[in-house]
């Protein structure tokens, strides 16, 4: 798949995703800003496995900025795409606080998981891939590991309130 | 992969553990599938957190700090515990095996025929024929029994038995009954089974010897003195009977023993027997007849196909046909004089075993040689009891005896029941 085709499909996905959070115009603008950034900053990336996660990071950063401004000023202020750098986790104290709170929620939820889920989570945090986990746990089929992880992820999400992030007030 | 399978890869996106193939599959599918794309977008916050190595380390510490479930905590040490227990058991058994003495090995089985009836004892030979041994064990000899069995002639093919009065009570002269084990010497004389004197197979500690002392009616005699003397070692064991006449002493296994019983107002009786080398001897029974202390019943019993007995009863002393001599009775603790009051008031001495008419007034004049309570007994009935002083003459009138027959009285100090004085006369 060509880069232009990937970017076109990405735009459609981002618009629909943003539309589920904001009004249609804001969603269109958000998607446009993401694509512009990809176009200007990352022209060398062409594969979908590179462009898609990057677009997700940019879109999240944009959405968080919009949310903060809307909360802070009570109005919508568009963020200039020229001012948007790559997401830097350590850039904003607000981001650090959100990550810290999420980490605390994770630390409270993980002990409530079952033993197998905790083992899976431990191996994943240690950087083990699914095929490696399959060998370590002595599972015959890798689909079994996929299924276990899918259920564990859902359990963990339920323990954290149905989503990784708290619902916006 | 189906859509559902691809959706299961979401869990590896946040942790960054997808393989390149899985990433390509997931992202290509997400590009086509809006729902999957939204799910990936919702994974982004978690991916951000987990991209921090410090956060990962914190979560791992949380996971490592969770205690293992009880069944794992119990299960994990099991192999180690089982191994340690097995090693301890093996070590314990090895130590125990090395420290304990070798167990005696059963080499042969002796069987004894039942004791013949009491009526056969008069014509029985003194010594029983040697007991035959029936070999039931393999022909392996322990080192402690060298050449005993190999040198002996082979046992008869048919079952042969040595006799011993074990099953049936031995009745001798109607006065003593008991069961005896085979003497160890007899087994040695037999030649088929001749263990040395120090053979550990036969060396045991003393074994209990139980018995009962009864009077002529079969009632138990209380507080009778019983002395058991070992013929091999000379060891003496004393006992006294309880209210039922039963006693418990000890005997040396594999050797002869001599049981003597005495009680005030009764003739003492002695029984000679043998304790078996293995096991406990059969209970013995001694029946004491009324009489003076100088009258002793000696009975020797031998084990064998026909038990033999030699009984000698003598008044005023001891005489034994085959048994060793016994010591003389001690000197009486008093002197007496039996008097008869004649018509007119005169007193006339009655000789020993003399005859007096029925209903005559009899006076017993006693000069005690010690202080104490003196008791006059006829049979088992006490007819008089007086406190006497040494050298002071006591005249006591006896109850009138109106029934013709022999009267036997016992005069003794209860504090010294071993030395009663017997006084006998006849009523005509």
Tell me what you see in this structure.
The complex is a heterodimer of chains A (169) and B (428). Chain A contains seven helices and no strands. Chain A is an all-alpha fold. Chain A has two domains: 3-83; 93-159, Arc Repressor Mutant, subunit A (Orthogonal Bundle), CATH 1.10.10. The model of chain A has no long low-confidence stretch (mean pLDDT 82). Chain B is α+β, with helices and mostly antiparallel strands and 428 residues long. The longest helix of chain B has 23 residues, at 77-99. Chain B folds into four domains: 3-65; 70-99; 118-314, Immunoglobulin-like (Sandwich), CATH 2.60.40; 334-427, Cupredoxins -  blue copper proteins (Immunoglobulin-like, Sandwich), CATH 2.60.40.420. In chain B, the strands form four sheets. Chain B has a six-stranded mixed beta sheet, with no helix packed on it. Chain B has a five-stranded mixed beta sheet with strand order 1-2-9-3-6, with no helix packed on it. Chain B has a five-stranded mixed beta sheet with strand order 14-20-19-16-17, with no helix packed on it. In chain B, helix 3 crosses helix 4. Chain B is built from nine helices and 20 strands. The interface between A and B is large, with 49 and 47 residues.
Integer-rounded radius of gyration of chain A: 19 Å
In which range does the helix fraction of chain A lie? 55-70%
Series of H and E elements of chain A: HHHHHHH
**Number of E-state strands of chain B:** 20
Continuous helix count of chain B: 9
As a percent range, the share of strand residues of chain A is under 5%
Q: Uncertain segments of chain A of ≥5 residues (pLDDT<50)?
A: none
Shape of chain B: rod-shaped
The neighbouring-strand order within the major sheet of chain B is 5-4-7-8-10-11
**Termini gap of chain A:** 40 Å
Low-confidence stretches of chain B: 118-204, 293-329
Encode the helix/strand succession of chain B as letters: HHHHHHHHEEHEEEEEEEEEEEEEEEEEE
Give the helix/strand class of chain A.
mainly alpha
Sheet having the most strands of chain B: 6 strands, mixed
Distance between the termini of chain B: 135 Å
- Name the CATH architecture of the largest domain in chain B: Sandwich
CATH class of the largest domain in chain B: Mainly Beta
């Amino acid at each position: 798949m060509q880069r232009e085709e990937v970017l076109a499909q990405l735009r459609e996905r981002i618009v629909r995703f943003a539309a589920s959070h904001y009004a249609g115009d804001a969603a269109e603008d958000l998607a446009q800003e993401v694509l512009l950034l990809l176009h200007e900053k990352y022209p060398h990336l062409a594969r979908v496995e590179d462009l898609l996660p990057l677009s997700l990071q940019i879109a999240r950063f944009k959405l968080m900025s919009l949310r903060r401004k809307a909360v802070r000023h009570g109005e919508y202020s568009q963020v200039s795409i020229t001012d948007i750098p790559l997401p830097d986790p350590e850039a904003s104290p607000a981001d650090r606080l959100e990550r810290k709170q999420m980490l605390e929620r994770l630390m409270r939820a993980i002990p409530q998981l079952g033993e197998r889920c905790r083992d899976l989570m431990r191996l994943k945090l240690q950087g083990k891939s699914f095929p490696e986990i399959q060998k370590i746990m002595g599972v015959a089929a890798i689909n079994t590991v996929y299924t276990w992880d899918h259920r564990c992820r859902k359990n963990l999400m339920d323990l954290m309130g149905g989503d990784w992030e708290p619902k916006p007030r | 992969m189906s859509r559902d399978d691809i959706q299961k890869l979401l869990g590896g996106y946040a942790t960054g553990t997808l393989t390149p193939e899985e990433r390509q599959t997931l992202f290509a599918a997400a590009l086509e599938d809006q729902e999957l794309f939204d799910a990936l977008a919702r994974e982004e916050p978690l991916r951000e957190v987990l991209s921090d190595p410090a956060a990962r380390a914190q979560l791992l510490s949380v996971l490592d700090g969770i205690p293992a479930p009880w069944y794992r905590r119990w299960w994990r040490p099991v192999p180690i515990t089982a191994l340690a227990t097995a090693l301890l058991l093996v070590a314990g058994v090895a130590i125990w095996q090395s420290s304990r003495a070798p167990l005696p090995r059963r080499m042969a089985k002796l069987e004894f025929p039942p004791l013949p009836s009491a009526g056969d004892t008069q014509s029985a030979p003194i010594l029983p024929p040697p007991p035959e041994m029936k070999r039931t064990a393999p022909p392996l000899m322990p080192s402690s029994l060298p050449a005993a069995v190999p040198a002996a002639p082979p046992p008869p093919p048919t079952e042969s038995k040595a006799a011993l009065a074990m099953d049936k009570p031995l009745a001798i002269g109607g006065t003593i009954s008991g069961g005896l084990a085979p003497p160890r010497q007899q087994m040695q004389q037999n030649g088929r089974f001749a263990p040395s004197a120090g053979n550990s197979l036969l060396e045991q500690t003393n074994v209990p010897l139980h018995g009962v002392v009864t009077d002529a009616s079969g009632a138990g005699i209380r507080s009778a003195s019983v002395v058991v003397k070992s013929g091999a070692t000379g060891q003496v064991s004393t006992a006294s009977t309880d209210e039922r006449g039963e006693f418990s002493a000890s005997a040396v296994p594999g050797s002869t023993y001599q049981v003597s019983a005495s009680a005030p107002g009764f003739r003492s009786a002695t029984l000679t027997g043998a304790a078996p080398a293995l096991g406990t001897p059969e209970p013995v029974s001694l029946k004491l007849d009324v009489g003076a202390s100088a009258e002793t019943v000696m009975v020797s019993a031998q084990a064998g196909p026909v038990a033999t007995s030699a009984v000698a009863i003598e008044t005023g002393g001891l005489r034994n046909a085959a048994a060793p001599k016994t010591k003389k009775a001690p000197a009486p603790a008093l002197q007496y004089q039996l008097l008869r009051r004649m018509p007119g008031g005169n007193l006339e001495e009655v000789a020993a075993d003399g005859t007096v008419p029925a209903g005559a007034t009899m006076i017993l004049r006693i000069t005690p040689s010690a202080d104490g309570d003196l008791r006059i007994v006829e049979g088992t009935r006490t007819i008089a009891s007086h406190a006497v002083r040494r050298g002071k003459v006591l005249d006591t009138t006896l109850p009138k005896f109106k029934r013709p027959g022999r009267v036997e009285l016992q005069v003794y100090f209860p504090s010294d029941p071993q030395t009663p004085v017997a006084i006998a006369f006849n009523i005509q």
